[in-house]
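To the structural biology subgroup,

Please find below the input and predicted structure for Glycosyltransferase, which we are adding to the shared reference set this quarter. The sequence is reproduced verbatim from the submission form. If anyone notices a discrepancy with their own records, reply to this email rather than editing the shared folder directly, so we keep one authoritative version.
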Amino acid sequence: MGIDYVVFYLIPNIVGGFYMFIMALGAAKRPRSHAYPPVENYLVVVVTVGDERVMPALAETVAQLERLGLRYTVLSSRPLPIKNHIVVPKEEDGSKYRAILWFVKNYARNDMWYIFLDDDSYPLDTRFLRDIAYYGARGCVAGNGVLVPRPGRSALAYALDWIRYFHDLTTYRFSLEVLRRPIFGMHGELLIVRGDVLRSIWPAMGDTITEDFRFAMELLKRRYKTFQTSTRVSIKSPNSLRDFVRQRARWAAAISEAAKYKNAYYLILTASPIALFLSTPASWLYGFTIPLLISAVYASVYIYGSLKAKRYILDVWLASFLELMGLIIGAARKAKNFYVIDKR
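Predicted structure (tokenized):
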């Protein structure tokens, strides 16, 4: 058995097999049906900078929350022409983490459930209120929804964003539902958390541009249980490929956060698709390999995205490398400031 066989065939197939196993378990797990009544002790909190770049998306989010009859408040850096909003004092603001910290210190209660949304995201139904009651009774303290992209001005960014939907149905569901531990992080869109846990963890976290990921790592460290609600969450895709890359570059900060918390699971998950993709050509030497199968799965996701966006499949496949480019740029630059993408 030569070293080339071990490096290019045996190891990639072992890693690929494990990765496929995780995705398959997540995909097979379905949210449980139940007849629990919706919780009443909740508040939806929409976090926004409140400037002209986000106002159209924010108006869309507020309209949806009112259509669903949900209790909400908008936590804003600026005064808004919206009846239910709280303005964060300028000296307490400066980042999403700091804005929520001020809210936690001044408004959060132990006996409430809080559902955080970005200003361009909103739930498509209210089933998450029933899921909070069901999973809360079983010891879960935090949860997420399933992200579903809606078009911005860039059809390519919209097509690429469908990978987030795929990951929510596979790897994230494996983490939140099968393991009940947020080993791969959590989304800031429809971030559900019990009030006492929020008040305990958030002030102790420290400022960061990846507040949702650090919060998940603190939940993991303290061995809190999580869940994934059946509610779909509409997220607006970036309006340009430039914003798409900048958004992904910010997410790269989660890699250093994972290293800080010694979360090997996340580091392996991030590296695995890249390593498996690079090992795919080994199929020319050894025949069918699991990395080839994984590449086909991801290719099919991008095909699905291209059909949804009505773009040429080749365009989307080529643009998919922007995901990797964003991570590389983010890891190299080590961004320290939150970049607000244009949501008009």
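Summary notes: DSSP finds 15 helices and eight strands in the chain. The beta strands are 42-48, 72-76, 85-87, 113-118, 121-123, 140-150, 191-194, 225-236.

Regards,
Lab coordination
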